[in-house]
Structures are given as structure tokens and as C-alpha cells.
Amino acid sequence: MSADLVAAAAEPPADRPGVVPVEPSGTGETGTGETGGHERVARPAEPTWRRALRTPAFVAGAVITASIVLAAVLAPLLATHDPAAQDLLNGLQGPSSAHWLGTDQLGRDLYSRLLYGARTDLRIAGLAVIVPFVTGVLLGTVAGYVGGRFDWVVARVVDTVVAFPFYVIVVAVVFAVGAGERGIYVALALVGWVTYARVLRNTTAVYRSSPWVVAARGGGLSHGRVVVRHILPNTLTQAVVLLMNDVVFVIVAVVTLSYLGLGVQPPTPDWGTMITDGKAFMATQWWLSVAPGALVVYTGIGLSLLGDGIADVWRAE
Length: 317
Description:
Elements: H1 3-10, E1 19-22, E2 41-44, H2 48-53, H3 56-73, H4 75-78, H5 110-128, H6 130-146, H7 148-162, H8 166-177, H9 181-191, H10 193-208, H11 211-218, H12 223-259, H13 271-278, H14 287-316
Antiparallel strand pairs: 1-2
């Protein structure tokens, strides 16, 4: 038997697309052999997109996330003013036809700054999770599959980082590296990978002793091919769901750092900076801080629902 045939036979039933095995009811409609045994019949699997549309969490999360991403992408078309343009004679104005959400203390249009702030925060969050995701998946998979000393070292590093509060480490690293986007990327790259590594290490260690993995190794497949073809397809789903939830934490971290003056620096629009600038006027112009804060909550809800929805869709699959 060739290695490819052995690999195909070794795959778990849940990973074979397009066919869902169904046990016959025993009525004879599916056919019987001379020995009276029943044949297994197969029916087409329900498309993933249909399961997704029937999952409320996925639909709600996708709509919310798509709306905020679309607004960020189309900010140059939707904005009514230059987000950095100052008009000191019209500072702290209320909502009007000229400024839909009013102006801040420097006369800058709040509506336009919210749109461009979404571009800034979503861009940073999207880029900041790439390195931790790749690093965590790689180290966790290798540690869980290889075991031994490498697994022990990875586990000890993960335990050490997890022992400290996430935001304390991030703030300390950013303070040491320097405020701004560069400090955010470095801090999240250093500590953000541990969650992925811990999850992938545990799941890979479980799948390593699974029957289809043992059969694949017995068929002569290399370790690399076993990991890529038989283990990663089953573990990456959890990593992707974790990624969606991690984006929420990164956005909150970016906003928090900007609030503390360690994140995005003026005059670049950013939700955290806008919250900080507006807190001095909460008694009169409360919307200066409430509006960006509400968008942070709105974005977090959307991404959380989307992650839960993806998990529900894959769990049903």
C-alpha cells in the first residue's frame, strides 16, 4: 500500500470533506449482504456557509465586525473633515450640520476622527497578532509533537510569562522600548504567543497518540507530513478561534496604552487618545470620551461573537 493511501486511511472521519457517514436503520432499504450485514450509506455534508448562516452568533458577529471594518476602510470617503485639521475658534462645539458629532478642544471634527481612529486601531491590532499567532502555533505544535526537552523548555517559558499580568508586562516592555506603534508591536510579539503555544501544545500532544496519526507514521510518512496533513488541520481551528478573541485584547491593549500616553502619539487619531483628551470635559461634552469608548465596546462585542460563531460552526462540523 502506498504512503498516500495509508495517509488517506489514517485520516479521522471528521476530516473527510463532503461525506458524512450515516448508520443504516436496519430496515433493509440500504441493502444487505448475504451475511445480513448492513452497508454504510453516505449523504452530502451540509456546506459550511449554510451552517454559518444558521448560527446566530456568527451572523451577528460578522455583521458588527464587517460594519466597523468597512467604516475604517472607507474613512477617506465617509469623513467630512480632515481628522487632524484644527479650528481653535470652534472648539468644543456640539453636534451640528457642519460637525455631526461636534468638535474637540482643538476644533477637530469628532466624527472624522472616530473613523480614522478605527483605521489606526484595527490596523495595529491586525498586524500585532500576526507574529504571536505564527510563533505560538509553530512552537506549540513542535513542542506537543516532539516532547522531551524542547517541550519542557517551552512549557516553562509559557508558565513564567503567564505568571505575570498581561498588561503589566506590555506596559513595562513599551516603556522600555519606547512609546508608539513600534513599542506596541515589540511588546505583543514578546508575550502574545504564549496563549497559542499553550493551546496548540496540549491539543497536539493529544492527537500525537491518535490512531490515524499512528497509522500514518506506520505507513512511512515523515514527521513533517504527519504534522501538516493530520495534526494541524485539527488544531488550527482552535487557534483561529483564539485569534479572533485575541484581537479584542490587542485592541483594548492599544487603547489602554494610548490612554496612558504610551501608545499611538498625536496627531494620529486613536480611540484611546480621544478618550484621554475628552475626560477633562466629561461634565459638559461627555460624548468626547463616550463615543470612542462605545466604539471600543462595539468592536469587542463583534469580534467576540464572531469568534464564538466560528467555534460553533466548526464544532457542528
